[in-house]
Amino acid sequence: MLKMLIIGATSAIANETIKHFAADGAEFFLVARNAERLNGIASDLKVRGAKRVETCVLDVADVSQHQSMIDQAGAALGGLDAVLIAYGSLGDQAASQASVETALNELNVNFISVVSLLTILGNLFEQQRRGVIAVIGSVAGDRGRGSNYVYGTAKAGLDAFLSGLRNRLSKSGVQVLTIKPGMIDTPMTAHLKKTPLFATPMQVGHDIYKAMRSGKDIIYTPFYWRYIMAIISNIPEMIFKKLSL
User: Fold this and answer.
1) Cα 175 vs. chain centroid, distance in angstroms?
2) Four-residue CA torsion sign, 193, 194, 196, 197
3) Residue 238: pLDDT above 90?
């Protein structure tokens, strides 16, 4: 029976992903800031087939609480087989470039706090020599763009960190999955104008479930973002700096 720690469990993408695992009879330890929403998701997962669901209210930006939370999750479920880190903040680029405090807060939420979690989890999973660590990054980390480079910087750093962690933990039989969604129609992107490139959380959640089950290393979701970002990443800098992206 799969025992899963879900950090950022109230995110739309995480919610859609874990519905699939619930149907498999998984056990969950759900972490998020909103107790009411956590309880609602827990009840839904039980209806869908989850064997057990525990919850923990925590602001994961507070790195001092990470070790105790992970210890609590392991104790509650009797060990951990998989973790999905699914929280983040899209932020406001204009606000971030105008304020050092705002920029550093975005980097803390999207990169530093995740590195804290991954350091603890990496050591745990390496010691047990098995398991799956899956983290939602973003295609924004593939190349810095004027419209969101503070957010993109955090995701680029996370991409590099996960690459190194994967290289290290593969020797211990641990899967490290980097998830790179494109534009998803979620509450985090509610303020953005929707285009045909936007996908649904349901579609992305299914992709993540399949990737975690099949031992993938990196996925772009939906798949076409791999090709879009390959084009963007290979535009010569002389041209790229003149574009408004």
Assistant:
1) 15
2) positive
3) yes
- Measure the CA–CA gap between 213 and 185, rounded to whole angstroms: 24
Calpha distance 102→244 (Å, rounded): 23
Encoded amino acid at 171, one letter: K
Residue 182's CB is within 10 A of a number of other CB atoms, namely: 20
**SS3 (DSSP) at 27:** strand
- The bridge status of strand 52-57 relative to strand 3-7 is unpaired
- Whether residue 219 is contained in a domain is answered as yes
245 in a domain, yes or no? no
Give me the pLDDT at residue 190, please: 62
CA distance 175 to 134: 8
The one-letter amino acid code at 213 reads R
The domain that holds 212 is classified in CATH as 3.40.50.720
Quick one: which H or E segment has residue 163? helix 149-169
Examine residue 36 and state whether it is found in any structural domain, yes or no.
yes
Q: Is the pTM of this model over 0.85?
A: yes
Strand, coil or helix: 100? helix
Token code pair at residue 6: 């879900």
| pLDDT greater than 90 at residue 152 | yes
In a domain, 60, yes or no: yes
Task: Give residue 126's domain range.
Answer: 3-240
CA gap 28, 129 in Å, rounded: 20
Number of domains in the chain: 1
b/e map 191-211, b = 16+ CB within 10 Å: eeeeeeeebebebbbbbbbeb
If you average pLDDT over residues 181-201, what whole number do you get? 77
Picking from 128, 126, 131, 127, the residue whose alpha carbon sits closest to that of residue 81 is 131
